[in-house]
Design a protein that fits this description.
This protein is of the alpha+beta class and 156 residues long. The protein has 3 helices and 11 strands; from the N terminus they run βββαβββββαβββα. It has a single domain, classed as glutathione-dependent formaldehyde- activating enzyme (gfa).
């Protein structure tokens, strides 16, 4: 299945930062770690891992959040919406983690993998096909991405 109906437009809550996605995501994930819970004020964060070559930003972002690892969390400087995350590991592989709730239509987005379930809040359900107590092992990502390419949720 390859019909992604690209490109997609996205923006922060106030519209000051606009984004455009021209390449299909390689996986959709939910993270249950306590850091993501606090960043989202929710039970988990939702991510689409995108090829950096298929992602563009119009407007300035500001960096904030965790600072305890090598991830860089990008926010709108006006409304403070969490937009996307970069890290040296992701960048080396040509990817970034995008917050799909910024899409004009995120109604189709569903996590395929959930991680950090050891920190999961009681009652938090994602419907993800695969679940990991911490992170998937590096050798698992290729298989998970292949499965997502075949079975992952698509825009309607």
């Amino acid at each position: 299945m390859s019909n992604w109906k690209l490109p997609w437009n996205a923006s922060c809550l106030c519209g000051q930062v606009k984004m455009r996605i021209t390449a299909a995501p390689v996986i959709a994930m939910a993270c249950h770690c306590t850091g993501c819970q606090k960043l989202t004020s929710g039970a988990y964060s939702l991510t689409l891992m995108l090829p950096t070559a298929g992602f563009s930003v119009e407007g300035e972002t500001q960096v904030g959040a965790l600072h305890r690892d090598d991830s860089t969390h990008h926010y709108c400087p006006r409304c403070l919406s969490w937009l996307y995350t970069t890290s040296p590991n992701l960048t080396a592989m040509g990817f970034l983690n995008f917050r799909p709730t910024m899409l004009e239509d995120a109604s189709w987005v569903a996590p395929f993998v959930e991680s950090q379930t050891a920190e999961k809040l009681p009652g938090a359900m994602t419907g993800a096909k695969h679940s990991f107590e911490r992170w998937p092992a590096p050798e698992d990502y290729g298989r998970l991405m292949q499965e997502y390419a075949l079975e992952g949720a698509r825009p309607r």
